[in-house]
């Protein structure tokens, strides 16, 4: 079945630094990737949708300059949290879809970001 | 009104019980319906995927969709402690818009 690999699984960084999270589709071509954020005991909140080779589409209220998304290839998308602050601490999860249109089908294992 | 409504629980049942999890929705454009299981600090794992009204069974899990009532359910038979997790319903339009429920926290007590 489809596998999405997400790294790192957890990261601690200092306030003001940037953190990059990678999401790779291992056995299929991910034309679309979704990035979600999840606070404790809450559901997934879609942050942005990225299509390979084009700019990401951000949800309302998500700062595009703070959460930089790159989807340069069919198997890799990255989310960079720039100038991280403690309020950015959260669980970030990617999801990848293939050309068949089963978007949001396979999730990565998530990245727990803690900003201190 | 939210696109997808799901009772957050928590739901606590004894081992062996039948669990019923439900979601309602308002958008008639939803055509695909999914149930995910999420263990603590892990990404969601797809359990069931269906696109038509009726029942779909997979082992101890049965997904039920009633498009006329805009209501979906997930039944877990012979529940096990390993079923303890958060269960998220998700719905997708033909335009590939994707919405999650808030998740229901389930604990199965040995």
Give a summary of the structure in a few sentences.
The complex is a heterodimer of chains A (116) and B (110). Chain A is an all-beta fold.
Which helices and strands, and how do they pair?
The complex is a heterodimer of chains A (116) and B (110).
Chain A (H helix, E strand, L loop, with lengths): L3 E4 L2 E4 L5 E7 L6 E7 L6 E7 L5 E2 L8 E7 L2 E6 L8 E8 L8 E2 L3 E5 L1
Parallel strand pairs in A: 2-11
Antiparallel strand pairs in A: 1-3, 3-8, 4-5, 4-9, 5-6, 7-8, 9-10, 9-11
Chain B lengths: L3 E3 L4 E4 L4 E7 L4 E9 L6 E6 L3 E5 L2 E6 L4 E6 L8 E9 L4 E3 L3 E6 L1
Parallel strand pairs in B: 2-11
Antiparallel strand pairs in B: 1-3, 3-8, 4-5, 4-9, 6-7, 7-8, 9-10, 9-11
Globally, the shape of chain A reads globular
Strand-pairing-aware structural class of chain B: mainly beta
Tally of separate helices of chain B: 0
Q: Tell me the distance between the termini of chain B.
A: 37 Å
| Helix percent band of chain B | under 10%
The most extensive contact between chains is:
A-B, 23 and 18 residues
Assembly category: heterodimer
Structural class, from secondary structure content of chain A?
A: mainly beta
Helical coverage of chain A, percent range: under 10%
Give Rg of chain B in angstroms: 13 Å
Structural Rg of chain A = 13 Å
Instruction: Report the mean per-residue pLDDT of chain A as an integer.
Output: 88
The beta-strand count of chain A equals 11
Give the end-to-end Cα distance of chain A, rounded to a whole number of Å: 37 Å
Order of helices and strands of chain A: EEEEEEEEEEE
Outline of chain B, from the CA principal axes?
globular
How many helices of chain A? Answer: 0
Q: Would you list the SSEs of chain B in sequence order as H and E? A: EEEEEEEEEEE
Largest sheet features of chain A = 7 strands, mixed
